[in-house]
Amino acid sequence: MAAALVTGRPWVLALAAAPLVLLALALPDGLHPAAVTAEAKVEPRRRFEGEKVAVRITVSYEGAPARLDPGVALGHGVRLDHLAVGPHRVELVLTAQRWGRWTLGTVDVDVYDRGGLVPAHRANRTR
Protein backbone atom coordinates (compact mmCIF):
# COMPACT_ATOMS: atom_id res chain seq x y z
CA MET A 1 0.00 0.00 0.00
CA ALA A 2 2.83 2.37 0.82
CA ALA A 3 4.47 1.51 -2.51
CA ALA A 4 1.30 2.63 -4.34
CA LEU A 5 1.35 5.99 -2.55
CA VAL A 6 5.06 6.58 -3.04
CA THR A 7 5.20 5.57 -6.71
CA GLY A 8 1.80 6.99 -7.67
CA ARG A 9 0.74 3.72 -9.31
CA PRO A 10 -2.75 2.61 -8.23
CA TRP A 11 -2.43 -0.90 -9.66
CA VAL A 12 0.04 -1.72 -6.85
CA LEU A 13 -2.73 -0.94 -4.35
CA ALA A 14 -5.06 -3.31 -6.20
CA LEU A 15 -2.50 -6.11 -5.80
CA ALA A 16 -2.20 -5.50 -2.06
CA ALA A 17 -5.95 -5.16 -1.43
CA ALA A 18 -6.92 -8.85 -1.73
CA PRO A 19 -4.41 -10.21 0.83
CA LEU A 20 -5.26 -7.37 3.22
CA VAL A 21 -8.99 -8.17 3.02
CA LEU A 22 -8.32 -11.88 3.67
CA LEU A 23 -6.13 -11.02 6.64
CA ALA A 24 -8.79 -8.71 8.07
CA LEU A 25 -11.44 -11.43 7.78
CA ALA A 26 -9.23 -13.93 9.59
CA LEU A 27 -8.37 -11.62 12.48
CA PRO A 28 -9.69 -12.81 15.83
CA ASP A 29 -12.72 -11.03 17.19
CA GLY A 30 -11.53 -11.10 20.80
CA LEU A 31 -12.96 -14.56 21.41
CA HIS A 32 -9.70 -16.48 21.13
CA PRO A 33 -9.17 -19.48 23.43
CA ALA A 34 -7.87 -18.54 26.86
CA ALA A 35 -7.05 -20.35 30.11
CA VAL A 36 -6.02 -23.53 28.32
CA THR A 37 -5.65 -26.63 30.50
CA ALA A 38 -4.89 -30.20 29.53
CA GLU A 39 -5.14 -33.53 31.30
CA ALA A 40 -3.60 -36.78 30.05
CA LYS A 41 -4.84 -40.28 30.89
CA VAL A 42 -2.75 -43.31 30.02
CA GLU A 43 -4.32 -46.76 30.14
CA PRO A 44 -2.89 -49.14 31.09
CA ARG A 45 0.30 -47.85 32.66
CA ARG A 46 2.22 -51.14 32.31
CA ARG A 47 2.58 -53.06 29.07
CA PHE A 48 4.77 -55.76 27.62
CA GLU A 49 6.60 -55.68 24.30
CA GLY A 50 4.18 -55.38 21.36
CA GLU A 51 1.16 -54.40 23.45
CA LYS A 52 -0.75 -51.18 22.91
CA VAL A 53 -1.12 -48.18 25.22
CA ALA A 54 -4.03 -45.73 24.83
CA VAL A 55 -3.39 -42.06 25.67
CA ARG A 56 -6.27 -39.58 25.86
CA ILE A 57 -5.53 -35.88 26.30
CA THR A 58 -8.53 -33.74 27.23
CA VAL A 59 -8.12 -30.04 26.49
CA SER A 60 -10.37 -27.40 28.02
CA TYR A 61 -10.34 -23.70 27.27
CA GLU A 62 -12.46 -20.60 27.60
CA GLY A 63 -13.63 -18.73 24.55
CA ALA A 64 -14.79 -19.56 21.06
CA PRO A 65 -14.44 -23.03 19.53
CA ALA A 66 -10.88 -23.70 18.48
CA ARG A 67 -8.74 -26.00 16.36
CA LEU A 68 -6.27 -28.33 18.08
CA ASP A 69 -2.92 -29.03 16.44
CA PRO A 70 -0.91 -31.73 18.25
CA GLY A 71 2.82 -32.18 17.82
CA VAL A 72 4.02 -35.61 18.93
CA ALA A 73 7.62 -36.42 19.91
CA LEU A 74 7.75 -40.13 20.70
CA GLY A 75 10.03 -41.63 23.29
CA HIS A 76 12.68 -44.19 22.38
CA GLY A 77 11.21 -47.65 21.78
CA VAL A 78 7.63 -46.44 21.19
CA ARG A 79 5.65 -46.48 17.92
CA LEU A 80 2.60 -44.32 17.11
CA ASP A 81 -0.20 -46.48 15.67
CA HIS A 82 -3.15 -44.09 15.70
CA LEU A 83 -3.80 -40.36 16.22
CA ALA A 84 -7.28 -38.81 16.44
CA VAL A 85 -8.04 -35.14 17.08
CA GLY A 86 -11.42 -33.76 18.16
CA PRO A 87 -12.60 -30.35 19.35
CA HIS A 88 -11.54 -31.00 22.98
CA ARG A 89 -9.45 -34.17 22.81
CA VAL A 90 -6.38 -35.82 21.32
CA GLU A 91 -6.23 -39.62 21.35
CA LEU A 92 -3.14 -41.68 20.62
CA VAL A 93 -2.52 -45.41 20.44
CA LEU A 94 1.11 -46.36 21.02
CA THR A 95 2.96 -49.66 20.91
CA ALA A 96 5.99 -50.59 22.99
CA GLN A 97 8.47 -52.00 20.47
CA ARG A 98 10.86 -53.52 23.01
CA TRP A 99 10.72 -54.59 26.61
CA GLY A 100 11.99 -52.29 29.32
CA ARG A 101 10.98 -49.01 30.88
CA TRP A 102 10.34 -46.21 28.36
CA THR A 103 9.06 -42.68 28.32
CA LEU A 104 6.08 -42.50 25.98
CA GLY A 105 7.08 -39.04 24.80
CA THR A 106 5.76 -35.49 24.69
CA VAL A 107 2.64 -34.11 23.04
CA ASP A 108 2.55 -30.36 22.41
CA VAL A 109 -0.99 -29.19 21.72
CA ASP A 110 -1.44 -25.83 20.02
CA VAL A 111 -4.94 -24.37 20.37
CA TYR A 112 -5.75 -21.92 17.56
CA ASP A 113 -8.52 -19.35 17.38
CA ARG A 114 -11.14 -19.38 14.63
CA GLY A 115 -8.92 -17.50 12.17
CA GLY A 116 -5.92 -19.71 12.96
CA LEU A 117 -3.72 -16.72 13.82
CA VAL A 118 -3.48 -16.67 17.62
CA PRO A 119 -2.16 -19.90 19.14
CA ALA A 120 -2.36 -20.80 22.80
CA HIS A 121 0.07 -23.57 23.76
CA ARG A 122 -0.05 -26.45 26.23
CA ALA A 123 2.49 -29.27 26.55
CA ASN A 124 1.89 -32.68 28.12
CA ARG A 125 4.63 -35.11 28.97
CA THR A 126 3.47 -38.70 29.36
CA ARG A 127 5.62 -41.19 31.20
Write the SSE topology.
Layout: H1 2-7, H2 10-26, E1 34-43, E2 52-62, E3 67-74, E4 78-85, E5 89-96, E6 105-112, E7 119-126
Antiparallel strand pairs: 1-2, 2-5, 3-6, 4-5, 6-7
Your description of this structure?
By secondary structure, this protein is of the alpha+beta class. It has two domains: 30 residues, no CATH class; 93 residues, Sandwich (Immunoglobulin-like), CATH 2.60.40.1930. Helix content is 18%, strand content 48%. The strands form two sheets. A four-stranded antiparallel β-sheet has the order 1-2-5-4, with no helix packed on it. A three-stranded antiparallel β-sheet has the order 3-6-7, with no helix packed on it. The chain is elongated, with a radius of gyration of 21 Å. The model has no long low-confidence stretch (mean pLDDT 76).
